[in-house]
Specification:
With 242 residues, this protein is α+β, with helices and mostly antiparallel strands. It is built from nine helices and six strands; from the N terminus they run αβββααββαααααβα. It has a six-stranded mixed beta sheet with strand order 1-2-6-3-5-4, covered by helices on one side.
């Protein structure tokens, strides 16, 4: 017969020790292949060379602002801003922004124009093929996070898009997801996280509300850009800086 073993009793000390492991805040070391730095305006960048597949680039721009940075009365504003920055900027007004995205190969009907808002982040995700499109992608990203125009007429149109997204919450799957989210977040700092916000707020938000959130949180010192692609790392860094 296999020997009988007796489990060590659980004590307060072992629980505290286990909890300490769970809340370990030691930063994960940065990969040696990644080059990072901070520009004079406060923007952090990360660059990594990768030639597979060849001459392609993946770009991410992260804004350290999500639904938890909203005032209670403004739930849904962060997500609405994420939608609206694609409606035009100072350098790429209206259709010109969509044309620039199409030049990079994006399907501007929405499938490939990729961004998302979470509780504490907003992330813009671009792909580019070729060095020329890499610079174009960086130019577009720079403009949408620094010079979005929030046209009043487009706010009305975008309400319908966001309300369509919100319909998922009323479905069986949506209600199930929300139930589990509430369980997991209960008692944590994410308990009040509400990305989409109320339908009433979606219907009443105006351009001024969106611009106020944008100007407060879309700052270089709260942003990071990540570029991975098929160029020597120093050249990728140069493209970011330029």
């Amino acid at each position: 017969a296999a020997p009988t073993t007796t489990a060590a009793p659980t004590t307060t000390a072992t629980i505290v020790e286990a909890s300490a492991i769970l809340v370990d805040t030691t930063p994960i070391p940065l990969d040696d292949a990644v080059k990072t730095g901070t520009l004079g305006n406060g923007l952090t960048y990360y660059a990594r060379s990768n030639d597979s597949p060849g001459y392609n680039f993946e770009i991410r721009l992260v804004v350290k602002a999500g639904s938890l940075q909203q005032e209670p009365a403004d739930l849904g504003i962060a997500h609405f801003v994420e939608h609206m920055v694609f409606q035009g900027t100072d350098r790429f007004p209206g259709p010109e922004l969509m044309n620039a995205l199409e030049q990079m190969g994006f399907d501007t009907s929405g499938a490939d124009v990729n961004a998302f808002t979470s509780c504490d982040l907003t992330v813009y995700q671009f792909s580019a093929t070729g060095r020329e499109n890499l610079q174009l992608a960086l130019d577009v990203l720079d403009d949408i996070v620094t010079a979005a125009t929030f046209p009043r007429e487009d706010v009305v149109t975008e309400r319908g898009v966001i309300l369509e997204e919100a319909r998922y919450d009323d479905s069986a799957d949506g209600m199930l997801d929300q139930t589990f989210s509430n369980m997991y977040r209960s008692g944590s700092g994410y308990e009040e996280c509400d990305v989409l916000g109320s339908k009433d707020k979606i219907l009443t938000v105006v351009s001024r509300d969106l611009r106020s959130f944008y100007e407060r949180w879309y700052r270089p010192d709260l942003m990071a850009v990540i570029v991975v692609g098929d160029l020597p790392i120093d050249e990728i860094e140069s493209e970011i800086i330029s």
